[in-house]
Amino acid sequence: MKPETLTQQVKVNNAKLFIDGEYVDALSGDTFESINPATNQRLALVANGSEQDAKRAIQSAKNAYDSGVWSKMPVEDRSDILCRMADLIMKNVDELAMVETLDVGKPIKESRGFDIPRAASNFRFFAEMSKYMVSEHYDKHNIMSYAKYSPAGVTSLIIPWNLPFMQMTWKASAALAAGNTVVIKPASYTPLSAVMFGDIANEAGLPPGVLNIITGPGSTMGSAMTTDPNVRRISFVGESSTGKTIMKNAAENLIPVSLELGGKSANIVFEDADLDEAVKGSIDAIYRNQGEICLAGSRLLLQESIYDQFMEKFVAAVKQIKIGDPTLEDTDMGALVSKNHLETVEAYVDIGVKEGAKLACGGRRITNIGDGNFYEPTVLYDVNNKWRVAQEEIFGPVLVVIPFKTEDEAVSIANDSQYGLAGVVWTNDIRRAQRVSAAVDSGLLWINCWYIRDLRTPFGGSKASGIGREGGRHSFEFYSEAKTITMKL
Ligand code: NAD
Predict the structure, then answer these.
(1) Which of 150, 311, 419, 469 would bridge 474 by S-S if both were Cys, CB 3.0 to 4.6 A apart?
(2) C-alpha–C-alpha distance, residues 190 and 194, integer Å
(3) What is the ipTM of this complex?
(4) What residues form the catalytic site here (predicted)?
(5) Cα–Cα distance for residue pair 321/290, rounded to 1 Å
(6) Backbone angles phi, psi at 399, to 5 degrees
(7) Would you state the pLDDT for residue 13?
């Protein structure tokens, strides 16, 4: 591989805060570096905001909200602007995809083929849906009651580093479609695609102050975004431990929260499954986005009767994964987001081996691609579900394989977890598919597939994986304030 392909730079405009429709420096003038995970070289300098900057952005969103310029705009006009944002995302798909790939370390074919188009779909979906929302109306004798849904107000959206543009637009499109104004904070590892979004908002005609984007430390800026009494909704995606802090902070002013948190989902393969299909789907479920996906099927539960046969096919398929420069079209797996994260993933593999896991493949850094955070796709097998590698979210390309004998045992292993985000079941027995999908304690469950989303359906997790559901009408309910009006006729 030619080293120059790894040092490709992209011109990143305006790596500043976006407040009240303008790009501005942090009040302190401070900046931090955004690093390319594939080279560990600087991509751009980014404004390092403070609590005061967060307050500025919240005030801008509050002024825009109170003016009614967005919250009282006819829904058809709001929808037109949001559709224009979707069009502009697709018009800029190549540049956005390249920035996302350089900032996150993910393969360009995923950024261009999935993340950015899905971001446009998020906007188009909620823009369209907002025009057709219906509300309840009940008659009882001579009493008529109906519900009126109004925007909630200023909304804080706090985003993680793994799927930054997709996650940001998933939240922002719904909050804006419901008539709110928003303050968005991307993660400090991956702020660049979010920063570019200000230009798109302006070009689409979104009024100033309706969308604000701030960059800087989660501890200070994030805490301002979750305690300020002017904020009326908080939607957070990130680690379960951060989610707890946010909920405590939000309690101070009783701000409603929606939390999409971590996962350690069971991917269960029964002996009657189509094994080739299950191998393909299970590879995707753990190694897509370098394993840095909350929904990852990171615990592979294999029925004992097919254990050896499946492992053989699976490991052969893992060896076909092409790891390399994320900007190249044929790369399947790129670099982990940071050196720190690489070390964490590596430490987990050591812990697993010490706990007694066997290493089927992987388990090493890759150093011949360049100076980036590359790690082999790794399979630990004969794992006990009680071990740390089976209980803790590794959030990298590390799969743990756990054997089971019966359906009941599979369900009990799947549910022996603090998390409850997703589950996957591979079987050709329709009754078993229904029994197991009902019994696994998770917010999402896929049968014979993984990560297929219909944006009308509820999305979210149970237990330590989150609170609340977004998607379709669930998003509109969260981002709105409902009022019941009752009239005696
Ligand atoms: P993180 O919790 O470290 O950070 C997420 C965001 O919160 C960042 O923008 C960060 O700056 C901000 N933040 C940090 N401390 C804060 C505070 N005290 N107050 C307010 N904001 C604060 O998570 P991460 O490492 O960026 O992302 C990885 C995690 O996200 C994994 O656990 C993954 O499972 C989870 N995730 C969940 C979903 C889901 O849909 N359930 C989706 C993607 C990622």
Answers:
(1) 469
(2) 8
(3) 0.94
(4) 260
(5) 11
(6) -105, 140
(7) 53
Tokens of 149: 């849904």
User: How is residue 207 annotated by DSSP?
Assistant: P
Q: Residue 324 CA to chain centroid, in angstroms?
A: 23
Q: Which DSSP symbol is given to 405?
A: S
Quote the ligand 1 centre to 237 CA distance (angstroms).
5
- For residue 103, what are the contacts with CB-CB under 8 A and spacing of at least 6? 34, 36, 43, 164, 189, 190, 191, 192, 193
The catalytic site residues sit at: 260
- The alpha-carbon radius of gyration of the chain (Å, integer) is 23
Strand ranges inside 129-251, DSSP E? 137-140, 143-151, 154-158, 181-185, 211-213, 231-237
Nearest CA to ligand 1 atom 43: 294
Crossing angle of the two packed helices 93-104 and 192-204, in degrees rounded to 10: 160
- Above 50 in pLDDT, residue 6? no
Ligand 1, atom 11, lies closest to the CA of 218
Structure tokens at 40: 């560990």
Instruction: Examine the pLDDT at 7 and tell me if it is beyond 90.
Output: no
| Ligand 1 within 6 A of CB of 218 | yes
Whether 242 is in the pocket of ligand 1, judged by its Cβ within 6 Å, is yes
Q: Is 461 in the pocket of ligand 1 (CB under 6 A)?
A: yes
DSSP 8-state symbol, 222: I
**DSSP at 390:** H
Candidate of 228, 237, 348, 469 to mutate for ligand 1, largest count of ligand atoms within 8 Å of Cβ: 237
Q: Tens digits of per-residue pLDDT, 321-372?
A: 999 999 999 999 999 999 999 999 999 999 999 999 999 999 999 999 989 9
Strands 480-488 and 143-151, by their bridges, are: antiparallel
Confidence of residue 12 (pLDDT cuts 50, 70, 90): low
Provide the 8-state DSSP code for 70. T
Kindly report the number of other CB atoms within 10 A of residue 41's CB atom.
Answer: 14
Distance, in Å, from the CA atom of 311 to the CA atom of 175, rounded to the nearest integer, reads 44
**Distance between CA 466 and CA 484 in Å, rounded?**
28
Residue 11 pLDDT level (bands cut at 50, 70, 90): low
**Backbone dihedral region for residue 441 (phi beyond 0: left; psi -120 to 50: alpha; all else: beta):** beta
Examine the pLDDT at 29 and tell me if it is beyond 50: yes
Q: What is the mean pLDDT of residues 209-213?
A: 98
| Nearest to 479, CA basis, from 92, 224, 156, 41 | 156
Q: Which two tokens stand for residue 134?
A: 């219906």
Predicted local confidence at residue 3, as pLDDT: 30
